[in-house]
Amino acid sequence: LGDVYKRQIQVFVQKLEGLHLAVCGLGDAVGGAVIGATDVLDKTRQHATVHFGGVMSPFNAWVFLKGLETLSVRMRAHCENALQIAEWLEAQKSVEKVYYPGLKSHSQHELAKVQQSGFGGVVSFEVKGDKSKAWELIDSVNIFSITANLGDTKSTITHPATTTHHRLTDKQRLEAGIHPNLIRLSVGLEDVPDLITALDQVL
Question: 124-151 pLDDT, tens per residue?
């Protein structure tokens, strides 16, 4: 979701923003921005710049600037497409549970409506079955690229338990809601009927 659809909150939040996600949009550059109070930034400069340098490459900076030109319209499309996919998934008998804050069934839907003006492009769902069923779906689906990247114009699919969260213990994963049958989609800008057809063929 990034900051594009988060409403301005009158509290100061310190964070590390991954520019290589939705800002870039094509997954072809890596970068980040540290946002915080002066004392936080001073500590960051003293430590991080010694090890990583103070600026990104000119080419990466150019890629991010180009991405900013279309960020608003891309995020609108990501949100609209993701909501349609989430609603469709929720109606499928082979899907156990869908996680998307734009759905009324989501436990934090009301909170998301207050904090955000859009619900982002990431949809997660639990397929009925075990890890092997999730892997089978991921390996068989068309259109979606198998990668853990988020915010690309192309749709991606991944298995969080064995990728983004594989370093956690089984207990930690379960406590975080990362079940073996969980699949994560980053919904891109393709035509939604094509994405639904691809998912329908494997579900």
Answer: 999 999 999 999 999 999 999 999 888 8
Tokens 């609108």: give the residue.
76
CB-count burial class (<10 Å; 0-12, 13-18, 19+) for 151: buried
Distance separating alpha carbons of residues 20 and 13, to the nearest angstrom: 20
CA angle 104, 134, 192 (to 5 degrees): 50
Torsion of CA 36, 39, 41, 42, to 10 degrees: 180
Gap between the Cα atoms of 80 and 3, Å rounded: 17
Q: What is the pLDDT of residues 64-107, one digit of tens each?
A: 888 889 888 999 999 999 999 999 999 999 999 999 999 999 98
Angstrom CA distances, 184 to 91, 98, 120, 126, stand at 17, 10, 13, 9
Q: DSSP letter string over 115-161?
A: HBSS--SEEEEEESS-HHHHHHHHHH-SSSEE-S--S-SS-EEE-GG
Residues 6+ apart with CB under 8 A from 36: 14, 15, 44
